[in-house]
Design brief:
It is built from twelve helices and eleven strands. The chain has about 425 residues and is of the alpha+beta class. The protein has a domain of about 250 residues: PAS domain (Beta-Lactamase, 2-Layer Sandwich). The longest helix is centred in the N-terminal third of the chain and has 66 residues.
Length: about 425
């Protein structure tokens, strides 16, 4: 912006080159080959404009940058506060559901891995609203039972089910590691995603031996998740969402995130946040045809990302107004300063140019020329002294001419000799 301003000033001065050269063409002889910016007047105008415009431009740019940084800081702090609340609330929900499943695995009927296990799983499933489907596997990945809210499903019907296939892929790992885990998968034919809790079932004798695996399935558009997202008041231009490392939106809330948006266009791999759970990173993401400011945090408890964002243009609305005001102010300052500089340059350079012309005339023998004496400052005194010198030389020249006319021919011949 500063470079553009300087070039604008140079162009503005150059446009007045011919007009100012012709303004004094009757009184002052100027060289047509000399660039205008190399003249005293041009340099005076240029450096005066630089001294007045450049500080204004620098302070304006600095002020806009400071304002933008402050607005972003305020938005990030606000996002971080809401983000921590949403994430903490969600993690508490996860912990409660996970602990309830873990307690269920201590039920002897579950540990028996038989028909009684199916009844215990069905009873638990019908008593809560978070999970809509549960599986019980043996340690060899064989399906013991599959219970749904609307009734038990046949084994042959679920063998090729996406959730079942995914659980079997992780079955050996859970049994080997003996730790609770959760995975997120797409929901077939749906716009929302599914989360699966995987809980190892230990030997009922108390030995540290895994006999099977209990899997519980919940959707991210479930009532419990939506209650969490709806419990936080958002501005009309804000939104909150859960998404995976690829930007696939798992659940969302907020009018500024349209329903047809199912994926955030992340500018880079955000998996680095997995190494620092709880840390917040603010990034710019592409949302439809606009840029959004999105604050992101990773939850190791849920193994997903939580984000709160809003359109960047809303965050920096005040900054945009400052930029517009700065441009108008800068343009007005350039016009006003240019007019003032041209006036001052004329007041300073014209007397100097008159002095220069007077000296040239005296050198050429034109002693009748007089420099305009328009001021009482140093330049005016110099003009007065130059006029006095011209008068003195003119008087001496007149005396010399008279002497030549009245001198006798003999004196003239003697003078010639």
């Amino acid at each position: 912006m500063l470079k553009t301003t300087i070039n604008m000033i140079r162009s503005f001065i150059g446009r007045f080159n011919n007009s100012f050269e012709s303004l004094n063409s009757k009184d002052i002889e100027q060289s047509s080959e000399k660039p205008y910016l190399n003249t005293f007047r041009g340099k005076l105008i240029f450096y005066t404009l630089m001294a007045s415009i450049v500080p204004l431009a620098l302070f304006g740019i600095l002020g806009i940058e400071v304002a933008s940084a402050y607005l972003k800081k305020v938005a990030v702090e606000k996002h971080q506060t809401a983000l921590d609340a949403v994430k903490s609330h969600s993690e508490v929900l996860f912990q409660i559901k996970r602990d309830s499943l873990r307690n269920l695995t201590f039920n002897p009927d579950i540990q028996a891995l038989n028909q009684k296990s199916a009844g215990a799983v069905s009873e638990y499933l019908q008593s809560q609203s978070f999970f809509h489907e549960m599986y019980l596997f043996a340690s060899n990945s064989a399906i013991i039972t599959c219970e749904q809210k609307n009734g038990r499903r046949k084994i042959e019907e679920i063998s090729r089910n996406t959730a079942c296939t995914t659980i079997r892929k992780h079955c050996d790992r859970i049994i080997r590691e003996k730790e609770i885990s959760s995975i997120v998968i797409p929901n077939e034919g749906k716009s929302y995603f599914t989360i699966i809790f995987l809980i190892p079932v230990f030997e009922f004798t108390g030995k540290d031996e895994v006999r099977g695996l209990l899997a519980a399935v919940a959707d991210f558009d479930s009532t419990d998740f939506l209650k969490i997202l709806d419990s936080y008041s958002l501005n009309n231009d804000e939104y909150v969402c859960f998404f995976d490392e690829h930007g696939n939106i798992l659940a969302k809330n907020g009018a500024s995130l349209p329903g047809n948006v199912v994926k955030l266009q992340l500018p880079f791999d955000i998996s680095e946040l997995t190494d620092n759970p709880g840390s917040v990173k603010t990034i710019n993401v592409k949302n439809m045809e606009r840029n959004d400011l999105l604050s992101v945090s990773y939850s190791s408890e849920m193994a997903i990302y939580t984000g709160i964002g809003q359109p960047a243009e809303k965050v920096f609305l005040l900054s945009e107004k400052l930029v517009h005001l700065f441009k108008v102010t800068l343009l007005f300052s350039i016009v006003f300063s240019s007019a003032l500089c041209f006036f001052l340059a004329g007041e300073i350079s014209d007397p100097i140019q008159h002095l220069t012309l007077g000296i040239r005339n005296i050198q050429s023998g034109i002693l009748t020329h007089r420099v305009p004496d328009l001021s009482e400052d140093e330049i005016g005194k110099a003009a007065s002294e130059l006029n006095s010198l011209a008068k003195s030389l003119e008087r001496k020249n007149l005396v010399s001419e008279i002497w030549k006319k009245i001198a006798s021919p003999g004196d003239q011949q003697l003078e010639k000799k």
